[in-house]
Each structure stands twice: as structure tokens, then as C-alpha cells.
């Protein structure tokens, strides 16, 4: 909520005279509370979405790490086999 709007609402509430008709005061309170609750709900929703994104990020990263380890291991083994074959070819 814009701070200027909040200042206006607080000023209007302070200038209200207590009368039997409190409709103006109720409208001002609702005008101040509704955007605050909406902002709070948006914040909580963003936090839950952020937690889900982090969870997916960790899952993808762990799978990529496993894949890289597997590729690295296979590459090292392939290199060793090629070296052995080259050594055998040099002996012959």
C-alpha cells in the first residue's frame, strides 16, 4: 500500500468526530485493512512458490550432479581402455 494513501486514511480517521453514524469510519478501516491483507496473502503465496522452486532446483541439481559423475566415470574408463589398447598395439 502506498504510504501517502495510508497517511491520508489515518488523517481522515483522526479527523472523524464520534457520532452515531460510523459508516465513514468503517469504510476507512476497510480501505486500510483490505490492501494490507491482500499484500500479506501475496507475500505468503510468494513464499510457498519460492519453496517449491527451491525444491525443484535441488532435485534438478542433484540429478545433474549424478549424470556428470556418471559421464566423468565413463569417460575415465573409456580413456583407460584406449590407453591399454594403445599399449597393447605398441607391444605388437
SSE topology sketch:
Blueprint: H1 3-15, H2 23-91
Structure, described:
By secondary structure, the chain is an all-alpha fold. The protein has one domain. It is 89% helix and 0% strand. It is rod-shaped, with a radius of gyration of 33 Å.
Task: Supply database-style keywords.
about 90 residues, rod-shaped
Q: What is the count of DSSP helices, taking H or I runs of 4+ residues? A: 2
How many domains, in number, for the residues? 1
Rough outline: rod-shaped
The secondary-structure element order is HH
Strand content: under 5%
Main beta sheet: strand number and arrangement? Answer: none
Helix content: over 70%
Number of strands: 0
Uncertain runs: none
What's the alpha carbon Rg, rounded to whole Å?
33 Å
- As an assembly, this protein is single chain
What is the rounded distance between the termini?
83 Å
The helix-and-strand class reads mainly alpha
Mean pLDDT: 81
Summarize the structure.
The protein is mostly helical and 92 residues long. 89% of the residues lie in helices and 0% in strands. It contains 2 helices and no strands.
Amino acid at each position: 500500500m502506498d504510504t501517502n494513501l495510508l497517511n491520508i486514511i489515518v488523517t481522515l480517521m483522526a479527523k472523524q468526530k464520534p457520532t452515531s453514524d460510523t459508516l465513514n469510519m468503517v469504510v476507512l478501516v476497510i480501505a486500510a485493512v483490505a490492501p494490507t491483507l491482500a499484500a500479506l496473502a501475496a507475500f505468503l503465496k510468494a513464499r510457498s512458490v519460492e519453496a517449491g522452486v527451491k525444491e525443484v532446483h535441488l532435485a534438478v541439481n542433484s540429478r545433474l550432479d549424478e549424470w556428470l559423475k556418471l559421464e566423468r566415470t565413463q569417460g575415465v574408463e573409456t580413456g583407460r581402455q584406449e590407453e591399454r589398447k594403445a599399449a597393447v598395439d605398441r607391444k605388437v
